[in-house]
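User: For this week's homework, look closely at the record that follows, marking any run of repeated tokens, and judge whether sequence predicts the tokens.
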Amino acid sequence: MLQIEFESRACFGGSTSALELRVRTEGTHLKGSREEYPDPIRVDQRLDRTMGEQLLHKLVDAATRAEHGMRCQSTTEAEVRLTWSCGSGLFKTFQRATLTGSLCSFRWQHDEGATEPYERVDGVFDTAWDVLEQATSPRPDEAPGAHPGATR
């Protein structure tokens, strides 16, 4: 189980969003909300285990990737709170972490060949944001007039 609460605060307001991913043998449950003006996003989906593992790896990678080169001076603050558990029954343990910083998710101009700057708070915030957005995007076979397996 992985829970992520991600919040942004700026001079003229902010937003609080949440994501919960539960990966089990029988499948995955993705649940969350993203406060987006004017229409908030709500997600409550069942996915297969493979998709759940892919999402989990993407989020863990964002949270554990090495930081380097960020010198953001944004007035938008970000806070990401992570809670995860491993095991089950008597062996279940919970861990928590909080990441804070400035939200600098815009793409920096950098020298050719230079490593792109990275800060974990931005990485987890953006990744969780994208996971919820992709979960609400219509799948090709759900688009009006689409046929399963058809290509365009």
Remarks:
- Residues 120-136 form the longest helix (17 residues).
- The first strand starts at residue 2 and ends at 10.
